[in-house]
UDP-N-acetylenolpyruvoylglucosamine reductase
Amino acid sequence: MSDWRSLAAERLGGIETIRDFPMSRLTTFQIGGPIDLLVQPQHTGELQRVLQFCAAEGVPWMVLGLGSNLLVRDKGIRGIGIKLAGEFLEWRMDGPTARAGAGLALGDLSRETACLGWSGLEFACGIPGTVGGAVFMNAGAYDGEIGQVLTAVEACYPDGGYVRLNASDLELGYRFSRFQREKAVITRADFGLRPAAKADAEARITELTCQRQSKQPLEMPSAGSVFRRPAGYYVGPLIEQAGLKGFRIGGAQVSPKHAGFIVNAGGATAADVLALIEHIRREIRERSGVELVPEVRVIGEE
Ligand SMILES: NC(=O)C1=CN([C@@H]2O[C@H](COP(=O)(O)OP(=O)(O)OC[C@H]3O[C@@H](n4cnc5c(N)ncnc54)[C@H](OP(=O)(O)O)[C@@H]3O)[C@@H](O)[C@H]2O)C=CC1
Ligand SMILES: C=C(O[C@H]1[C@H](O)[C@@H](CO)O[C@H](OP(=O)(O)OP(=O)(O)OC[C@H]2O[C@@H](n3ccc(=O)[nH]c3=O)[C@H](O)[C@@H]2O)[C@@H]1NC(C)=O)C(=O)O
C-alpha cells in the first residue's frame, strides 16, 4: 500500500473508491493489469476534489470511459482512474439540444434521442464508448462524426477550473480533439439535433446495426479498429492482402471477420496484442510501404 492511497482515503472521504481494480474488467478487450485506485465522482464538486488531490500530491490520473479504445499493459496503471458516475450519466433535451453527461454510453444516447423523434446521432448507435470518450476522439462511423453534431462541451481542468467551450474551439479533426494534447476531464456535451419521424430515425439505426454486425467481430472482445486510416488506404484490405487475416500471437488474433480489428481469442495478454501490432506494422511496411499508426490508446506501466 503506497502512502498516497492512505492519504486519498482521508482526503477523498465520501467519494466511492476501489483499490487495485483489474482493468480487464473495465476494457472491451478484457485485457489489462490493475489500476491503483478507481475513483467514481458523482458530481462536479467531487470531481474537482479528486483533481485537486492529484495536483497537490502529484498523483497521475486518467479518465476511464467504457474502455472501448484502450489497450492496458499487463502490469496495470499507476495512479488514479476517474470513472464518471452519478449526474455524469444523465441527459435531457433542451429544445433541439441534447445535453448529455460525459459518462453516458453514446449508443444509449443515440437510441434514446431517436426514440423521442430526434435525428443526428443515429450514426453513433454502435459506437461502444462514452459521450466523453467520443468527444475526446471525435469518434465516427458510417459517414457520421461527433463534430458534425457537437455544439459545446464542458470540461474540468487539473487545477479544478471549469470551462464551457464551443465545438469550434476544440480543433476537431479525424479522430482528434484538443483534449488529446491538453489534459482535462470532459464532463458534459451538447448536441444540436433535428426533429424527425421516429420511425425514420429508428430504421436508420436498425440498418446501421445490421451493417456493423455483418462486418465487425462484435461477438469477440476487441478495441475496435486498431489502426488509423492511412491517407489513401483502408486498413482492412492492406492486412487481408498481406495474408494476415486470422494470424495469431498467443491469445491475440487478427479478426478473421474484419482484418482491421485484433480480437482477444481467449486469454490474450497486452504483450500478445502489442507483439501482434508490431508484426502487422512490419509486414505492411515491407509489403506496401505504408506506415500504420495505432488508433487504440496503449497505456499502463511498461
Ligand atoms: N467507431 C467505432 O466503431 C469505435 C469507436 N471507438 C471510440 O473510441 C472512443 C473510446 O470511448 P470510451 O470507451 O468512452 O473511452 P476509453 O475508456 O477507451 O478511453 C480512451 C481515452 O479517452 C479519454 N477520455 C475518455 N473519457 C474522457 C472524458 N470524459 N474526458 C476526457 N478524456 C476522456 C481518456 O484519455 P486520458 O488517458 O488522456 O485521460 C482515455 O484514455 C470513443 O470515441 C469511441 O466511440 C471505440 C471503438 C469502436
Ligand atoms: C471500429 C471503429 O471505427 C470504424 C467504423 O466503425 C467503420 C464504419 O464506419 O469505419 C472505419 O473502419 P474501416 O476504416 O476499417 O472501414 P470499413 O468500412 O469497416 O472497411 C473499409 C473497407 O475495407 C474492406 N475490408 C474491411 C475488412 C477486411 O477484412 N477486408 C476488407 O476488404 C471493407 O469491405 C470496406 O470496403 C472506422 N475505423 C477507423 C479507424 O476510422 C473504431 O473507430 O474503432
The chain has a mean pLDDT of 97. The first strand starts at residue 16 and ends at 22. Residues 110 and 122 are 6 Å apart (CA to CA).
